[in-house]
What we know:
Layout lengths: L2 H9 L2 H6 L2 H18 L6 H13 L9 H4 L7 H7 L2 H6 L10 H8 L21 H16 L11 H10 L7 H11 L4 H6 L1
Helix pairs in contact: 3-4, 3-9, 4-8, 8-9, 9-10
The protein binds fe (ii) ion.
The site of fe (ii) ion has 5 residues, from loops.
Amino acid sequence: MSVVEYxxxxxxxxxxxxxxPPAVLRHERNVLECTILLVKSxxxxxxxxxxxxxxxxxxxxxxxxxxxxxxxxxxxxxDEERLIIQRHPDIGASSKLLPxxxxxxxxxxIRSHHERWDGTGYPRxxxxxxxxxxxxxxAVMDVYEAMTSCERxxxxxxxxxxxxxxxxxxxxxxxxxxxxxxxIKVFRHQSPLLLAAG
Length: 198
Ligand SMILES: [Fe+2]
């Protein structure tokens, strides 16, 4: 059993599986795969690594609160629908569906995974290093996975290298420049999702 399989099996709960759409579970698992590849290149303690893994695996748990017709809507969202979607980080961070072992730091990362480096993200509009390091990492892994996923609702997936170019383009605005730099260094020669599929 791989590390990912182990963590996935250990952390998932029957009621969580029952209430989260399969596409969201697959996305969270892919983000975990990406995070594991990156984390091997970082000098994190065991406790930090576990918290980051937990945050990756549960970062979108708040999406259980979003009606499926909004979550999987084809095409443009209305302002009202966008606000409903933007509640999912706060809802997820305090969700009763999270295993009780998920730490306060992991919950903070879940709450902040849609913050942007330039302060224009949500839910709090944090900027730069106000954003927890784990959330800075998740933001990059989340968007990389979303860009390359075949499950995009209304856009074609982009290639691995195109996704890395897009991350680089958004370094310093959407993402931490350091995290993007490290991601490109690690992912350039190996796509984490192709590795996982293999
Ligand atoms: Fe999210």
